[in-house]
Each structure stands twice: as C-alpha cells, then as structure tokens.
Specification:
CATH architecture of the largest domain: Alpha-Beta Complex
Number of domains: 2
Radius of gyration: 18 Å
Helix content: 40-55%
C-alpha cells in the first residue's frame, strides 16, 4: 500500500497521507514517500503551481509514529524528517495544509511548514512533546512562535492542551476554519485562486517572504529590492487581458 498518494488537476498536486487506520501517523517510511513526491513536484514548477497536503480518513495525522520507530523503522538520515519540512518551505510552489481531526505534535510541525493552513471544525491541534518527556527537533520551537507569537506558542507547548479549529483560526495558526463537509471544497477553492495568479509571482513571493523573515525590516527591504526577479514572462499577456476587460 502506498503511504502517500498523489493526484494532479489543473495545476494543483494533492498529496494524501494514506494510513487512515493509524490516523496517518508519521512513520519513517511515510516520510520517505512524502519526500519523493515533494522532490518530484519541486522539479516540475511549470506543470504544478500549488500543492495541497491532506490526510485520508478522519484525521490529518496523529503525529510521529512511535510504534513504527520502536518496531525498527528508521529514516535514511538523522534529521530526514526535519529536513523534509525545511524542503516544503524551500520548494517553489505554495503548499496548503488541509486539516481535519488530529493534528498533534509532529503533524503540527508538518502543517506549520506549509504556507497556508485551512482546517475543519473537527480539527484539534496540540504539542504533546511534554507529555512524553520529548523535545522538538522538527521545528516546533521556531515555527509555532513565528506563526502565533511566543506567548501563545508557549501556552500550547507548556500545557500540551489541544485547541479547536475555530481557536486555531482566531490565533492565526490557521487561515480559515470551515465545516467539515466543506473542507475539501474550500481548500480546492483557495488552491484554484492561488494557481490562477502568475506562477512566476507565486514563486517570488514565497521566497521573498520566507527568506525575508531572517532579516530586520531594513535588511528585508534591501533584500527584496536586491533579489526580486522583476516582471514574469506572462506579464504582457496578463496586462492585455486586463485591457480587454476594461
């Protein structure tokens, strides 16, 4: 059985974590398949403009698969999972996490590496490292505070208490919270709106925003002016279309 499924439509690649019987727990073998799909997509920026990452069944993912690790599964390298999350941030296409049900610890770290997050009312987000006397290595201590602020991040990390999908949207952890029945449609609606824009601009925006976070405001402004790639090859055609509409 494939642990990660891929389907493509209208410039959108959908990757589905496919272990519903285990609440899509993130085993090392699943990460190997996920990385292969991500690398293939990153290598096809002219045919894939955006990515949706979702989980099959009632949960996005319950988190890192401790049972698989105890059973002897090993990732190819010491920080393979963390580096896969880094890869999501660095790949040219925007990645949208579509979350229902559990999104705990390692799964939350995976979702935080995505550019956008749309969740269902059933979604439950939590950092349970403390429950097991573990510490983060996949980015929780860095990405969560940057997403929702350090004080709110510390509350989640220190208590381990889950928050709802609606609370995630209020905190800024998620962009949107919708009814479960509408999650798939809303996610595809957002992805379609993304790919309707210039893919040249999408790639530039993602890089400028993500890399710009490393700098002070003044440094970031200079970085944008220095490295922004300028007009894309489709600008003239898009402007022609604007003139036709007006």
């Amino acid at each position: 059985m494939n642990l990660v499924l891929r389907s493509d439509s209208n410039g959108i690649a959908t990757l589905t974590l496919n272990r519903p019987e285990a609440l899509n727990a993130l085993s090392p073998n699943l990460f190997v398949e996920l990385r292969a799909h991500l690398e293939a997509i990153a290598g096809a920026p002219d045919t894939v403009g955006a990515v949706i990452l979702r989980g099959e069944g009632r949960s996005f993912s319950a988190g890192n698969d401790i049972k698989a690790i105890q059973g002897g599964e090993r990732a190819p390298s010491a920080h393979f999972q963390a580096e896969t999350l880094d890869f999501i941030e660095s790949m040219p296409q925007p990645v949208i996490a579509s979350v229902q049900g559990h999104c705990y610890t390692g799964a939350l770290e995976l979702a935080l590496a995505c550019d956008l997050l749309i969740c269902a009312e059933s979604a439950r987000f939590a950092d349970t490292h403390g429950k097991w006397s573990m510490t983060p290595t996949w980015g929780m201590s860095q990405r969560l505070p940057r997403r929702i602020g350090p004080v709110k991040a510390k509350m989640m990390m220190f208590t381990g208490a889950p928050i709802t999908g609606a609370q995630a949207a209020e905190l800024g952890l998620a962009n949107l919270c919708v009814a479960d029945a509408g999650l798939e449609a809303k996610t595809h609606e957002v992805a379609a709106a993304v790919v309707a824009n210039s893919w040249h601009t999408l790639r530039a925006d993602k890089r400028l925003v993500n890399e710009g976070q490393r700098y002070t405001l003044a440094e970031g402004l200079a970085f944008e002016r220095r490295t922004s790639p300028g007009a894309g090859p489709d600008m003239a055609e898009r402007l022609k279309g604007f003139g036709a509409k007006s």
